[in-house]
Amino acid sequence: MLVRQNIAYANSVFGMLYWSDSPSVNFHCNDWFGNRGGNFNHFIDSDMPSGDRSVDPMFCDIASDDVHLMAVSPLLADSAGCSWIGAFHTSCSDTIPTAALVAEFTAERELGGILVRWNLSDVGKSAAVRLERAELEDGPFVQVPVVPRVEAALMTVLDRDVTSRAYWYRLAGRVGDRTVMWVQPIHVEAVGTSRCALISVSPSPASGPVRIEFSSSDEKTVRVSVYDALGRLVASPIHGVLQAGRHAVLWPGATGQHAIAPGIYLVRFEYPGGRETKRICIVR
Prior knowledge:
Number of helices: 0
CATH architecture of the largest domain: Sandwich
CATH superfamily of the largest domain: Immunoglobulins
Distance between the termini: 78 Å
Largest sheet: 5 strands, antiparallel
CATH topology of the largest domain: Immunoglobulin-like
């Protein structure tokens, strides 16, 4: 028996219940989402059948039993050759802009984070959108807590709260009590953890010059900055394009014309797609 193109949504127990002596069952192109007891009673959810999904189907109005799909539902995409999933196609109008109004949506790594850009064909809709980030394509997504920089219809956000791992970004808004997507999520590839590294900051405690050592596997723009305990910038020993390899810079610290006061300081190494920080104690 083939179970295909069904939606099992918000069941109080399992998405599907079948007995061990039932005929052989094969699954393909189904969506299993929000079932309290799990998706199946005979195998764990991590064993999701090939071609099946676990995403919010985005019904038009589930409270009124309208299970048509919104125009931005991920189940309308012909992924894995499924055509759409569910009994009904789209028939309701979303109350936020759809993908047709998003003229541009990009994300790329640069010094200090990931730069995300989007361009709306209807500038008046900009207040309805929010940028969200996840570590997996299917979420969970969280809002990026940065106010976009606006230039005409172009909005940009530099997301600094990232590491070298891969991320997914999406533009989303609210329809009633649910979140809906404007466009499908976009992917930012991971950066190998060994490609850039803040190797050492020594000595610590330090009463003289401090040696800051870092490495990069290829040519890129990097920055080394020093901040006090209140987050104020006190020095920028390096900011520029460096060749691949291991590098070191001497920061005067408590010595020289611009000697700083004793205390705890943070040395931050920033590179395209991430940053690393080490703490150092300055003494006299």
